[in-house]
Write a structure and sequence with these properties.
By secondary structure, the protein is an alpha/beta fold. The chain is 54% helix and 15% strand. The strands form two sheets. It has a six-stranded mixed β-sheet, sandwiched between helices. The N and C termini lie far apart (67 Å).
């Protein structure tokens, strides 16, 4: 008998992230409850969409029970008779960002080599809530509060989908117990040295208990409304960027930019730097550049790795070769 989560996934795959018959989907899963829920649901609903799917699993080698965990995954997937692509990383201290980048590169390579056009992950509404709170505590801007979207393109011909993005952890926990799914307990999920774990096990339960709110639902509503605002700002940013950029050189009409609202100034400048240089700029650096564009009367304004040269209405960005050569000299002397 199908559950209400079967119906929810069916709705998601027909309205939120429509998939077509004959799509080939690569499920990126572990042995946790979210992943096994995703696998079980796709097995049960596979006949409705006439889709082919495989499973990709990455052994990060960061736990003592990693070998047993991998064997457990092999037993689970063997019963489904679907293809399994198993990878093992060399034991090393990686940052969270490095791990994420490596994982997604493995997913993309696997999908490309074995002709999958969709990659599905088991991110949930609870993950979305935690990510929002994490980014909020980091001081992220509104664009970065919600990095988990229903779908996005990873590379040409390969799309990432998150079909469980409106599932809560409580619902999934019930589902796994009801169908007696063989969950593997990841003890690193209770280590409070990880900030996400502290948010999951302390902050969110505290808010639910003492503020009597459905925090997952409320944050999701906030993010949905915020999405429309940020999407509007993105469109305005792109429009102004193309209006003020130089047709041939790395330059823009800085006086036209300075007539815009400060919010748009920062966004357009950030877009300009991303599209024309390899320089990473945070909000403070962008603010400093705008301040100099407003106040400087000199022809050359030097900042970090770039020289901003003003010529009439145009601000030209020139690579600061002097500073780059000084860096190279220091590296050689250290070597």
């Amino acid at each position: 008998m199908d559950s209400f989560l079967h119906s929810k996934l069916l709705h998601n795959l027909t309205s939120k992230i429509p998939i077509r018959n004959n799509n080939s989907i690569l499920l990126a899963i572990s042995c946790g409850q979210d992943s096994l829920c995703l696998l079980k649901l796709f097995i049960d609903l596979q006949h409705l969409f006439k889709i082919d799917f495989g499973v990709v699993h990455i052994d990060h080698q960061w736990r003592q029970d990693t070998t047993q965990n991998t064997e457990h995954m092999l037993h689970i997937v063997k019963k489904t008779q679907c293809p399994l692509y198993l990878y093992q990383l060399k034991p090393k201290q990686y940052s969270e960002t490095e791990f994420r980048d490596m994982r997604y590169q493995i997913y993309i390579n696997t999908a490309t080599n074995y002709e999958y056009d969709i990659i599905a992950t088991a991110h949930t509404l609870s993950d979305k809530t935690e990510t929002c709170l994490m980014n909020l505590l980091k001081g992220s801007c509104v664009d970065q509060l919600n990095s988990l979207k229903w779908q996005r393109d990873l590379s040409p011909g390969i799309q990432l989908i998150r079909p469980l993005l409106n599932f809560t952890r409580t619902e999934i926990n019930w589902f796994c117990k009801y169908y007696k799914l063989p969950i593997w307990f990841d003890y690193t999920n209770i280590y409070y040295s990880n900030n996400r774990n502290r948010i999951r096990h302390e902050i969110i339960p505290y808010l639910k208990q003492y503020y009597q709110i459905d925090i997952e639902k409320n944050i999701n509503i906030f993010l949905e409304r915020n999405h429309y605002d940020t999407e509007y700002l993105r469109q305005i940013t792109i429009k102004i960027y193309f209006l003020i950029k130089h047709p041939n050189y790395v330059a823009f009409k800085y006086k036209s930019l300075l007539k815009q609202h400060k919010c748009i100034q920062i966004r357009v400048l950030h877009l300009f730097i991303i599209h024309n240089t390899t320089i990473q700029c945070n909000y403070d650096i962008l603010d400093q550049i705008l301040l100099k564009l407003n106040n400087t009367k000199e022809l050359d304004t030097i900042h970090s790795k770039i020289i901003i040269q003003i010529d009439e209405d145009w601000a030209y960005f020139i690579l600061n070769k002097t500073r780059l050569s000084q860096k190279a000299t220091r590296r050689k002397s250290l070597a």
